[in-house]
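ok so I'm stuck.
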Amino acid sequence: MDAAKKPVTRRNEAIGIALWAAGFAIPAFASSSWVAIAAMFAIFAITALSEDVILGRGGMFDMGHAVYFGIGAYTTAILNTELGVPIFLTVPAAVLLAAGTGTLLAAPLIRLRGDYLLVATIGFNAIFVLAMQNNPGGITGGSDGITGIEAPSLFGIPLFSQSAMFWLDWVVLGLVLFLMRNLDRCEFGRALRYLKQDELAATTLGVDARAVKTLAFAVGAGLAGLAGTLFAVQLSTVSPSSFVFTESVTLFAIVIVGGPGSIPGVLLGTALMFVVPEIFRDFAQYRYFVFGIAMIAVMVLRPQGLWPRRRNGL
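replied:
not stuck anymore, here's the structure
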């Protein structure tokens, strides 16, 4: 990064930190419904950022990302309701199981290109939803899902209130944003970017394409599993309908419309998909139609996204 761009980068980071910190004041002036919407925004922003690791930064067409989100949610729900494991102790299991699934799937998937990878991930999404509906072992609740997930406790204090849950989600979003920002600066992030730009040239220079792509699936899936835990706790219930193909399409569209590889772009895309429909609630049923039209328009008129990635990673 040249010296002229460093002040711009620091300014952008300072603005981002200020906006994130200001978000903690939302419960002080917003209604309970808007606090809940802001909490869900944080959860889906984390999920979209996890999709961005694979799609936006890795350039791999992942159209089944809701599966990892669902694995995290179901892991937390099953461990908590069946075994009584405290919510915070379910997080490592949810993240590791989702990341492990992503790693296992990466082996056959990374050999595929373009449309073939797209179709394979769509099929995986369908298999996951059917499996949860069929209630294997009697632990997923079938089509009705799992209810009665407990609120998390911090130092023995249950986080029952909507404000407390919002602050928890907002803190985790801040940690994920910090992770994503530093992803651009580490060797893995640079290798992933090189592979997306020119895989042949990158491998010629010594980049292990298989290892880097597999790690991208693992990181993206793990972060989605973390978001799934927050989602299960936020709603205190999970069901297969929350992880269907349309949810994967939504995550895919958020990254494409906002700006692949762009942190502000992904946040903007998430806001357009989950916050704007609440403002125009009477027309919310048309959000998929409008977002589909928007995605086509962006791909034709602004293929880099509404807020494209800059050289400094922002």
